[in-house]
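Re: the 485-residue chain
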Amino acid sequence: MGFFFPTVTVAAHVLVVIVISVRVIMTRPATGVALAWLFLVAMLPFAGAIVYFLIGERRIGVQRERAINVLRTDYKAISILETVDNLTEVDWSRHSPTALGMDILGRTMAASPTVRGSNLQLLGDTQEILHAIARDVEGAQHSVLMEFYIWQQGGAADEVMASVIRAAERGVSCRLLVDAVGARPWWRSRQPRRLLEAGVMLKPALPFGFFRTMVGRTDLRLHRKIVIIDGQVAWTGSMNLVDPRFFKQDVGVGQWVDAMVRVRGTAVSVLGFTMIGDWVIESNESAHDVVKSAGLHLVSPYGNADVQVIPSGPGETSDSLLQMLLALINAAEKELVLTTPYLVPDESMVRALRGAAGRGVKVSVIVPERVDSLLTRFASRSYYDNLLDMGAAIYLYRRGLLHTKSITADGRMSMFGTVNLDMRSLWLNYEVALFVYDRDFGAQLRALQQSYVEASDRLEPAVWRGRSAGLRLIENTLRLASPLL
């Protein structure tokens, strides 16, 4: 009897290893990722299998997958409508020759064509942003749509909430979608009840629990930040619905520094349909009913910017956002400037940045001097050598946690949105990014990036290479965990 149980245990472990090995092989992840999982499952009996079950795949659940497939059909219909209204007839002669290729890439991989005729106003002061959003909500006559990863009470964020409550009380249709995990403390506060009592339709995005863990991963989060007012004005960017004077003041990184764009014109409808898609999945309302009550429609051109909205996330797209970012990096001929709070990129992106620097592009990467995650801080530093070796410049922002996510290429093409240059944003979170083909917006964004440079210290390669072997070991070890950070 004493011999029987070890034998059964070993046999069970072997069976588990075989089953998971077949699953890993058939899902075809990157070779290094696949080998890492096979090693972990084999070396940690049962525990490795549990870890793989929890985070080894981008499982979203059958119900969510079906809902996303329905929305994918709706997005194609939207694209057809835009074509009918000639909103996708962009004058590509105004842009870099590579811009048309990016448009085709976005159409092919994300079913999202570039739309002509938008105006983007960039704001980099968080107090000004919150006050401006509140003013737009105060002026709402038909609908307010909002989705955020984090909502926290306090300061000017309460001003936005009060404006939403007043809008609902005067009969404006208000829908708010807030991530269940990112805003977990807020969901436990009194503010959600106040919104519901005022008639606001409020839903948690991607709620978690034991059953949901069984059918899908609970660390796949809604990281988008979108506001739509009357189907005429939109906001998006890096900023959560928080006042940085009250947000995470105990982690020792200073205030968070963000930027948002206020959008008018055709891109508003694409952002609106993106947010409505998220709402429909969580609420089970029909897309037709939400669009009708929100007054959303194809907006007439307003402005000269041509904008391609790329939503991404598990079940929605595979690697479309990564491919768009790589195309933008490879399109740079003279200058490439990137800002990100968390630099834990995909290896293909590291190679693209090194290649850009190697062919003579002036590459600058601006990151915060301190971030709120110790693991991410060390993992990010492991990539500095890869960039410095090719002549890229790294700037450490010293006036808080720089949270803006942006890229400018030669001042002609830009990326601005919610996506961090890390594995979580590229593969696990639901994100939205604007790829903007417009010199005027490029100039606005480049000026903001330059203000970050002027508040940063450039990392000297000789000094960086002189750090201790112990630090190098920690950085390179945590780099192995980069897909989870």
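The chain has three domains: 4-53, 62-87+116-303, 320-484.
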